[in-house]
Amino acid sequence: MARKVRALDRTGQMKHAGTLSYLEPLDTPKRGVAVIDALAEMIGRAGLDVGDRLPPEVAMAATLGVGRSTIREALNRWEGLGIIRRRRGDGTYLTAKVQSSGGPLPIMIRMEGEALLRLFEVRRALETATVRAAAIKASPTQRVEIARLCDILLILVDRGEAYISADAAFHDAISDATGNPMFGQILARLNDALERSQESPFSRSGFGLRSFPHHRTLSDAIVNADADRAEAAITAIIDSIEDEIRQIIAPVTAVP
Q1: Where do the structural domains in the chain lie, given as residue ranges?
Q2: For the structural domain made of 2-94, what CATH number should be given?
Q3: Cα distance between residue 36 and residue 71, in whole Å
Q4: Which H, E and C letters describe 173-218, residue by residue?
Q5: Which of 113, 143, 165, 201 has the highest local Cβ count within 10 Å?
Q6: What are the pLDDT digits (tens) for 146-176?
Q7: pLDDT band for position 195 (50/70/90)?
């Protein structure tokens, strides 16, 4: 058994050595960004796919000529985006496809956008069930409160003022109206699931503004106990946001 384990270890080391051959020492002050670009390039050139294991952190750090903490920080970002999964005592595995930038769009922004699309695939199923349950189960008092919070939200959006807290309050009220606290808890965890950089276009105040006209439709549907209309409204909201994400990360076609 020991011989077999050693043989497997040697096979893994040989494979990692081949993967590491696609890394070169970095010489740039923006090492955090450069590391992410270099790792993505390595994965693409080595042909690594979902389920494949990355080389050890210490080996990647040594090959790039950076500290292990720099590699760990880059991998932490990827883990927060659902791109990798760490298995204690085993290694780091790819859980999503990674491609090099291949264009003017920074690779981290494209990865954030792709991660958000995966997140909204989950949110679509959950939020559809949430708004249907709210439309059916909300009490008269809760329906009035949802309408009031929608008014506040849309006023702030129309004025160009900060609206994130008001948006959260509106959606929290809808979750509360389901009578099942698990809806709100899971949605809250999903909201916190992805780490986004401060310079990310998905963090700016203008992101998602196209979806707000549908919030009124959603509010009215829940107030009127119309589950089908509420589902159509939340679908329109998510469709709008997903379309905006795709436009941001779409490849730029050069004009001849």
Answers
A1: 2-94, 107-249
A2: 1.10.10.10
A3: 8
A4: HHHHHCCCHHHHHHHHHHHCCCCCCCCCCCCCCCCCHHHCHHHHHH
A5: 113
A6: 999 999 999 999 999 989 899 999 999 999 9
A7: low
Structure tokens at 54: 């990355």
CATH code: domain 107-249 is: 1.20.120.530
Q: Report which of 241, 207, 208, 234 is spatially closest to residue 220, judged by C-alpha positions.
A: 234
Angle between helical axes of 31-46 and 2-20 (0-180°, round to 10)? 110
Residue type for 125, please?
A: A
Closest CA to 101 of 39, 55, 48, 47: 39
Q: What are the b/e assignments for 182-197, b being 16+ CB within 10 Å?
A: ebbebbeeeeebbebe
**Length of the chain, in residues:** 256
First to last CA, the chain: 62
Query: pTM of the entire structure?
Result: 0.74
Structure tokens at 40: 């993505």
CA dihedral (112, 115, 116, 117) positive or negative: positive
Question: What are 91-150's pLDDT values in tens digits?
Answer: 999 998 887 655 667 777 888 888 889 989 999 999 999 999 999 999 999 999 999 999
In contact, 126 and 143? CB cutoff 8 Å: no
Contact by Cβ (8 Å): 137, 179: yes
> Burial of 6 by CB count in 10 Å (0-12 exposed, 13-18 middle, 19+ buried)?
exposed
